[in-house]
């Protein structure tokens, strides 16, 4: 891990979170603008990364880069938690879950919903299910660390709620496609922005406490 240690000595881990979010925004806004009839209640995030959107390759590249930067951030966050007294085993379990979720994010960017629907769906499940687990696990760890406010730990659970809500709606729409599809789309955007806020606020906390 010597190379990683040297990397974090030169670049504070929180910056990986900020840069990753910046790349996502850079890819998101143009894709939203050119998406035909874009609507948070109709358009899925995956629609922006599919060939029906003229900027889908650009969006997918930015989405992929975001996933890579989030992996580096989670690695730095793991070191940070250990410095604050979290047991090494617990911190690394949380990282592994976060890493798997990030791999799901990378899969979503590589396999679009139109050309590779099955792989896209598998990546989606990996992203969501491990996302629920790592956020819940981090909530437990952060609750025990004095540097984290109780609200910070509770916010993890709020993000988890959005993840679970979307998964429930996703499954119900698979069973019955006519069941409130607009709520599924909106729930997807809710969890996405909540998850990105989680990365931003934890990166900001690390920067303040460095």
* Estimated radius of gyration: 17 Å
User: How many domains would you count in the coordinates?
Assistant: 1
Helix content: over 70%
Helix-strand category: mainly alpha
Summarize the main sheet: none
Please write the string of helix (H) and strand (E) elements. Answer: HHHHHHHH
Average of the residue pLDDT scores: 88
- The count of DSSP E runs of length 2 or more, i.e. the number of strands, is 0
- The rough form would be described as globular
Quick description:
The chain has 210 residues and is mainly alpha-helical. The protein contains 8 helices and no strands.
Structure write-up:
79% of the residues lie in helices and 0% in strands. It is an all-alpha fold. It has one domain (2-204). Helix 4 (56-83) runs antiparallel to helix 5 (88-110), helix 4 crosses helix 8 and helix 6 (117-143) packs antiparallel against helix 7. The two termini are 20 Å apart.
